[in-house]
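[job 4471] stage=fold_predict status=RUNNING
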Amino acid sequence: MIAELTPLVWTILALGALVVGLSKTAVPGGGTLAVALFAAVLPAKESTGTLLLLLIVGDMFALLSYRRHADWRVIVRMAPAVVVGLALGWAFLAVADDGWVRRLIAVLLLLVVGVTLWRRRAQARTGGEAPVGSGAVAAWSYGSLGGFTTMVANAAGPVMSMYFLAAKFPVKAFLGTSAWFFAIVNIAKLPFSIGLGIITPSSLMLDLVLVPAVIVGALMGRRLAARMDQRLFDRVVIVLTVVGALYLLV
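[job 4471] inference complete, writing structure tokens
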């Protein structure tokens, strides 16, 4: 497969790998752009397996940068729902049509964005102090959807970004919690992905070539995150979530 890739395809894949690094250390939710780039130039299943391994590399850099800033109570609270979502995603991926699955995920993502923005605005009007989206119902809703979407399309970034954003995490707590969450979940996905045959020797070789781009993106992201304003951060996450959902929809 590698020998058949054109210079244009290599450029797109390298850009996608760069985005993976950036999304892990600066802009959670931006990884959906990498999903789009990889799916545009590789077969669907091969793109998913190839991207998963690069995401795990990015997770390691995110942990190096933000491992001390995680909110473990949130991660533990969501764990059972994520496991359920992963199992449902694995079963669904084995039987469903790729196009239909992506469209379903897109609709759910847009609903998540809409509900999150509505709840935050309602809280601002009422002057409530409790974090939006921090209860058990929200944890199960976002957690199961996150597990499902990450299994079928590596697209849980926008879902979890909306949950952490709704909980009003500061930038570093947001990035630290995301880092540990995705490191654990992506490693847990490996047996499922190998069983489905979406990780192959060809994808492993391709990943070895693309890992340097992930590293460059991660280092760029660390410098960017140190300078990022909280309001700008929130807006970038929301915009990338909507863009990613629209991509999956079409």
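[job 4471] summary: Residues 2-249 form one domain.
[job 4471] exit 0
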